[in-house]
Design a protein that fits this description.
Length: 69
């Protein structure tokens, strides 16, 4: 995969519809979720990914309930 000159591949530009769609697919999130995540943590893809995973992560007590504990 090649990137455009001057574009940092680990940055999410929410103003670029094609890039937003690509990152949404890659991170399994909606465009709106990406916009909110970028607003919350900045445009670094790694930070956005951690924010999205954290927002969807289950708590330890949720996991215990799932396991029948």
């Amino acid at each position: 995969m090649t990137s455009q000159p001057g574009v940092q591949p680990d940055r999410i530009d929410v103003n670029d519809p094609q890039e937003l769609e690509r990152w949404a697919k890659k991170l399994d999130a909606s465009a709106e979720q990406l916009r909110q995540a970028v607003q919350a943590v900045g445009e670094r893809a790694a930070d956005v990914e951690m924010h999205l995973k954290g927002a969807r992560a289950s708590t330890n007590s949720d996991r215990v309930k799932e396991l029948g504990g």
